[in-house]
Write a structure and sequence with these properties.
Helix content: over 70%
Largest sheet: none
Oligomer: single chain
Radius of gyration: 19 Å
Number of domains: 1
Number of helices: 13
Order of helices and strands: HHHHHHHHHHHHH
Length: 298
């Protein structure tokens, strides 16, 4: 039987994916008002501060503070790079494509796991292949399967997928050793601080440029801070305490499907038949990764 804890973890990760999928649209719209560095640094700083309001400092117990700081700092830095590269890519690609190419980290997670001596169950590999081809079908704009038609934005998002895969492994390691809420808050604040500090040092004109900011721009920032950071990433932390990295990556690859749905509803980004087949393959891979490890093959 599938354990109740893994079902709970899978549900938390699926909800996180739904929330993330919904934020690709405001992330795309936000680029009309913010620079990628501005938007990314502010949304993590705001998200970290909001979560800080719910933290009871007296109940915090961290045994190895040095180890905790190293892990949260590493996670914050990798998270910052992943989010920034993704946001740079979103400037010149669609919200739908950004969601699908981000989903390629599902292929990278088990490969990184091998270098970390984490050998996944055999069933992971066919599920990875299914999700990979699903992402390819979703991410190609032409009718031919072999016409990838990549632009610079797509490439930035694919690079970000590598960092998302690295972040997933760091989170998987850390949430089993440290209190989830304080770890989440610290990595968000450090992520925002790293990016903001870089902006002050190297892009001061951009980081403090608020000429295009209006109420619509503030709404997109707050939505992504509350949705993506406070809700999505925090649910990921709790979910990954119960689900191992590779199955977690496969479940979270469903954010590509949700991104396509919201892109269609709000931005009228329409999927063709090939895209619909790709979305179906991703969902199939997510279901199989939950079912196949439980089957006994004679």
């Amino acid at each position: 039987m599938i354990s109740l804890s893994k079902i709970k973890g899978s549900i938390l990760l699926l909800i996180a994916s739904l929330v993330w999928g919904s934020t690709f649209v405001p992330q795309k719209i936000a680029m009309d008002f913010w620079s990628p560095l501005q938007f990314t640094s502010f949304r993590f700083l705001i998200g970290g501060v909001i979560l800080l309001l719910f933290l009871n400092i007296k109940e915090i117990k961290v045994n190895n503070k040095f180890h905790f700081i190293i892990c949260s700092s590493s996670s914050g830095l990798i998270l910052g790079l992943a989010a920034l590269f993704q946001q740079i890519g979103i400037v010149s690609t669609s919200a739908t494509n950004a969601g699908f190419f981000t989903g390629l980290y599902v292929l990278m997670v088990p490969l990184i796991g091998i270098f970390l001596l984490k050998i996944p169950h055999w069933s992971i590999w066919p599920c990875v292949v299914i999700c990979f081809f699903g992402s390819i079908l979703l991410g190609t704009s032409k009718e031919s399967l072999f016409s990838l038609d990549l632009n610079i934005g797509d490439i930035w998002v694919i690079i970000s997928a590598l960092f998302w895969a690295m972040h997933l492994h760091i989170v998987s390691y850390s949430v089993k050793r440290f209190p989830v809420l304080i770890f989440s808050i610290l990595q968000f604040l450090l992520c925002g601080t790293f990016l903001f500090s870089y902006g002050i040092l190297f892009q001061k004109d951009l980081i403090f440029n608020f000429e295009s900011i209006n109420s619509y721009a503030i709404f997109t920032l707050l939505y992504c801070s509350l949705g993506s950071v406070c809700i999505g990433f925090t649910l990921q932390m709790f979910g990954q305490r119960l689900v191992s990295p590779t199955p977690a990556a496969l479940i979270m690859s469903s954010e590509a499907v949700f991104a396509a749905i919201f892109g269609w509803l709000i931005l009228s980004e329409v999927l063709n038949l090939k895209g619909l087949v790709g979305a179906s393959l991703i969902l199939l891979g997510i279901l199989l990764v939950q079912i196949l490890p439980k089957l006994r093959i004679n």
